[in-house]
Write a structure and sequence with these properties.
Radius of gyration: 20 Å
Number of domains: 1
Order of helices and strands: EEEEE
Shape: rod-shaped
Amino acid sequence: MCFAGASQQWLSSIQFPHPGENAPRLQINLRWISVTINRFGINVADADAGVRFFPWSSLGFDLATGVSAFKVDVGPRTNGTPSLTATLKYSLATLRAGVAYSF
């Protein structure tokens, strides 16, 4: 029997205040996807948030942080034969600071 399913949720590129205003901008990105095929399950998540400020019309500053993670699950076989079961997890955190040029 083969079962496959997937789901995805996201909240991408929300900016406060609206672009064009001379104020710091907060940007948030959230992404998540989950896929299941037979006895294999995969989950991937990614999130980041940052602040960007343009005190001049084309030159600004950028500060952001983020996290990414994935998890792979291998479940037992459904037919009762011996099988490998495992869980693999990985995560990564980032920090970014820089100068932004808009043209």
